[in-house]
Design goal:
About 45% of the residues lie in helices and about 25% in strands. The protein is α/β, with parallel strands linked by helices. A five-stranded mixed sheet has the order 1-2-3-4-5, sandwiched between helices. A hairpin with a 2-residue loop joins strand 1 and strand 2.
């Protein structure tokens, strides 16, 4: 029997900023990663539009190794998820390998006009989000 490990997602709102904490365990299969991310981020995009949220701080600490194929696929599909380029998104990724992998996807999003940046520390990410 195959058991798919799962991400965990928690959110808190601080004014016009949503703080997202991603934990749990990364699924082994890219398709499972994308399905779980899509299932979380799509309703979150609706919430951002509904509640006037302009900034997202995503703090990522799931167990397991990030894979470039799933991260690139996720960032390439931001618009399909329902996120808008007017959102500023900072992602905190403590481990160096995960940061490099996620930076690949973020670079594609930036090329398409998204305001996304990857950080190693939360305080730097918060400072960048407040620039405007």
């Amino acid at each position: 029997m195959c058991h798919v490990m799962a991400y965990t997602f928690t959110t808190t709102q601080e004014g016009d900023m949503l703080v997202v904490r991603v934990g749990g365990t990364r699924p082994a299969l890219d398709a499972d990663v994308i399905e779980q991310m899509w299932g979380f981020w799509s309703p979150l995009a609706d919430r951002c539009r509904r509640d006037g949220i302009r900034r997202i701080l995503s703090i990522n600490s799931p167990l397991g190794q990030a894979k470039s194929t799933s991260m690139v696929a996720l960032f390439k599909r931001f618009a399909e998820i329902g996120l808008t380029p007017s959102l500023r998104m900072a992602m905190v990724v403590a481990d160096a390998h995960g940061r490099r992998v996620i930076e690949l996807g973020a670079a594609l999003a930036v090329e398409k006009g998204w305001s996304v940046k990857i950080f190693a520390a939360e305080d730097e990410a918060r400072q960048w989000l407040m620039l405007d």
